[in-house]
From TrEMBL:
Keywords: 2Fe-2S, Disulfide bond, Iron, Iron-sulfur, Metal-binding. This is FAD-dependent oxidoreductase. The keyword Lipid metabolism does not apply. The keyword Transport does not apply. Residues 447-501 form the Rieske domain. It holds the Pfam family Rieske. InterPro entries: FAD-dep_OxRdtase, FAD/NAD-bd_sf, Rieske_2Fe-2S, Rieske_2Fe-2S_sf, Rieske_Fe-S_prot_C.
Length: 501
C-alpha cells in the first residue's frame, strides 16, 4: 500500500544525516518531517536558529505523503462549520491564515521549479440531500470575501446537483516540495535524521531533554531550548490534545483512465464522501478518488467501504484501472479550528501544530508561519484563529464530551468483547483479538505469516481493533496504529505493541 506520491522512492527509508555528537544540543528540535515540520525548520534556519528535524520513519511517511494534496481555500464544508461555531471574524482569520499558507507554498514551488496545477475547486452536492450544506458553504465564502460562485452543473461524469466553485486554486505532488525543503535546510546548517523516534520530553531550568530511540535500538538524549511537535497528533499528553481531537482514517486510489480525465478538484457535501482530482505523471494523467472515511478503529470492515469507493470510480469512469491504493490519518478538532501554539498556556518551550482536519496543504504552511514567527518573537494577526489555547474552545465542549464518551465506551468494550470469542483464536486471514481480560491476545495472519501481540495500546490502555483495508491494528481511543507485528506506525503512542506472552 503505497501512495502515488511515495511510489518509486527507493531511498525513502535511509537517513539523510546520521545523528552525530554535535546534534546532541541544539536550539530547536522539530519532531516530524512532513510539510509543517520541514517548513517550520526551514523558516527557523533562515533566521539563524540551529535546527534539528527528527522523523520516526521516513520523509512524508505521515499525512503529507498520503494526502490528496489539494492546496485550496475551499475546503468542503469547513468554512460554514467555523462560521456556525465561531462567527465571521474568526472565519476570516482562518481564511487569511490559509491564504498566506497557500501563497507561501505556491511561491516556493514556483521559485524551485516544482510543478503546481492551477485548477478550480468545487464543494458539491451529489443529490438534493447535500444541497443545503453546499448552499451554507457558499454563503460562508461570500461572507468572508472569497470570490466563490454557485454553479448548477459541471463537466463531470458523476452525479452533480449543484455546488460552490472557487477559481484558481492549486494541487501538486507534495514530495518534490519536501525534497526542496530538505536541501535548503541542509544549506542553512540544519540537520535531518530519519528513523529516530522521540519517546519522551522533559524540561527543567536548563531547557528541554528529548529521549529518543533509533530504529537500530540505540537510545540517548538530545538537549534543546525549544521543541515543535509536528506529528499529526502531539506525542505528549500534556495539554490533553488527544481528548480534543478525533482521529479519522480515509482512503485514496489512483486510476489510469481511458479518454478524457476530470479537471478541477471536487469534494462532496453528502455521504458517502467522494473526493476527486487528477495528477500528472510521467506515464500520463491519473485520476485520484478519495473517501470511505471513518473514525480510527471504529469501523468493523473498512475494506467494504473501500470496495464501494472503487466500484463508484469504475462505474463513472468506465475502463478505469487502479494503479495505487493508500490511506491517510487526519485529526478533527472539537471546535473546528486547528491547534497551533504552546502545548500548555504560557509554555513557550514546547509547541504543537495539529487539527488540520484533512486540509494540511494550506493549514500546514500557515501553522509553520505562525510558529516560526512566535518562536522568533513576532506574531501573525490571523494566528488568533489557530491558537492552541483560546476561549473559542468553549464552543467545542459538547463535541468533546461526546467524543470522550465514545472513548470510554470503546475502552470498556475493548476489554469485554474478546471474551465472547474463542480463546486463542487464529484467523485464516486478517486479525482478531480474543481471550479473557487477563490474557488478551491479538493474532493476525498476513501473507500466510502469523503475528501474535498484546492488543493493549501503550498510550492509554485501549484494546486495538483490526483494519482489514490497511492490514493494521488500530486503537479506537486516540488513533494509534500498529503494523501486524506490533510495530508502531503513528498516533500518540510512542512504543510498539508488546509481543504476546
Amino acid at each position: 500500500m503505497t501512495s502515488l506520491w511515495l511510489a518509486n522512492r527507493a531511498d525513502r527509508a535511509s537517513a539523510a544525516n546520521p545523528l552525530v555528537e554535535a546534534d546532541r544540543s541544539v536550539d530547536v528540535v522539530v519532531v516530524g518531517a512532513g510539510i509543517t515540520g520541514l517548513i517550520t525548520a526551514v523558516l527557523l534556519a533562515r533566521a539563524g536558529k540551529d535546527v534539528l528535524v527528527l522523523e520516526a520513519q521516513f520523509i512524508g511517511a505521515g499525512a503529507t505523503g498520503n494526502t490528496t494534496a489539494k492546496i485550496s481555500l475551499l475546503q468542503g464544508t469547513k468554512l460554514s462549520k467555523i462560521m456556525s461555531k465561531q462567527g465571521e471574524k474568526t472565519a476570516r482569520q482562518y481564511v487569511e491564515g490559509n491564504r498566506e499558507g497557500q501563497d507561501w507554498l505556491v511561491r516556493h514551488c514556483e521559485a524551485h521549479g516544482i510543478a503546481v496545477q492551477r485548477e478550480d475547486a468545487y464543494t458539491y452536492a451529489q443529490s438534493e440531500k447535500g444541497l443545503s450544506s453546499a448552499r451554507e458553504e457558499y454563503d460562508a465564502c461570500t461572507a468572508v470575501g472569497l470570490a466563490a460562485e454557485w454553479v448548477d452543473d459541471a463537466d463531470v461524469p458523476f452525479p452533480f446537483s449543484g455546488g460552490v466553485r472557487l477559481a484558481d486554486q492549486a494541487q501538486f505532488d507534495p514530495m518534490p516540495l519536501l525534497d526542496s525543503l530538505i536541501v535548503e535546510l541542509d544549506e542553512r546548517g540544519g540537520r535531518l535524521a530519519q528513523g529516530v523516534r522521540v519517546q519522551k520530553v522533559s524540561n527543567d531550568s536548563n531547557g528541554l531533554t528529548l529521549n529518543v530511540r533509533t530504529t537500530e535500538g540505540h537510545e540517548f538524549d538530545i538537549a534543546a531550548k525549544q521543541c515543535v511537535l509536528a506529528t499529526g497528533i502531539p506525542i505528549l499528553d500534556r495539554g490533553g490534545f488527544f481528548a480534543r481531537l478525533k482521529p479519522q482514517r480515509s482512503y485514496c486510489m489512483a486510476y489510469k483512465v481511458p479518454g478524457n480525465i476530470t479537471r478541477g478538484m471536487y469534494i462532496s457535501t453528502d455521504s458517502p464522501t467522494r473526493s476527486v482530482r487528477y495528477a500528472p505523471t510521467s506515464e500520463g494523467d491519473r485520476l485520484i478518488v478519495g473517501g470511505a472515511g471513518h473514525p480510527v478503529g471504529h469501523e468493523k470492515s473498512p475494506s467494504s467501504s473501500v470496495s464501494e469507493l472503487d466500484s463508484w470510480a469504475k462505474k463513472h469512469y468506465p475502463g478505469a484501472m487502479q494503479t495505487h491504493y493508500w490511506s491517510a490519518q487526519d485529526y478533527s478538532p472539537v471546535d473546528e479550528l486547528p491547534y497551533v501554539g504552546p502545548i500548555l498556556p504560557g509554555h513557550e518551550s514546547i509547541f504543537v501544530a495539529t487539527g488540520f482536519d484533512k486540509w494540511g496543504m494550506t493549514n500546514g504552511p500557515a501553522a509553520a508561519l505562525a510558529l516560526s514567527s512566535r518562536i522568533l518573537g513576532g506574531r501573525m494577526d490571523w494566528a488568533e484563529a489557530f491558537a492552541s489555547w483560546s476561549p473559542h474552545e468553549l464552543s467545542g465542549i459538547p463535541k468533546a464530551l461526546q467524543t470522550n464518551m465514545q472513548v470510554g465506551f470503546y475502552l470498556a468494550r475493548g476489554w469485554v468483547t474478546p471474551v465472547t470469542r474463542t480463546f486463542n483464536r487464529t484467523p485464516e486471514d486478517g486479525g482478531v483479538v480474543s481471550g479473557p481480560p487477563w490474557h488478551l491476545e491479538g493474532r493476525a495472519v498476513v501473507d500466510g505469516k502469523e503475528h501474535r501481540v498484546s492488543p493493549v495500546c501503550p498510550h492509554l490502555g485501549g484494546i486495538v481493533n483490526w483494519n482489514d483495508a490497511d492490514e493494521a491494528w488500530e486503537c479506537p481511543l486516540h488513533g494509534s496504529r500498529f503494523a501486524p507485528d506490533g510495530t508502531l506506525l503513528e498516533g500518540p503512542a510512542t512504543r510498539n505493541l508488546t509481543p504476546a506472552q
